[in-house]
Amino acid sequence: KEGYELKHMTFIPEQIASHPEDDTLEIDLVPEKKAITIIKFLDEITNQPVEVNILILEKNTQKMIASWQTEGKWEKPLEKGIYEIRATAKGYIYQVDTIQVMDKDAKTQKNIYLKALKKQTVFPTNVLYEKHEYKPNKKSVSELETLQKLLEDNPKLSIKIIGYSQDSKQEVVNKNLAEKRAKFIQDYLVSKKIVKKRMVVSG
Question: Which of 2, 25, 158, 175 is most exposed, with the fewest beta carbons within 10 Å of its own?
Answer without folding.
Answer: 2
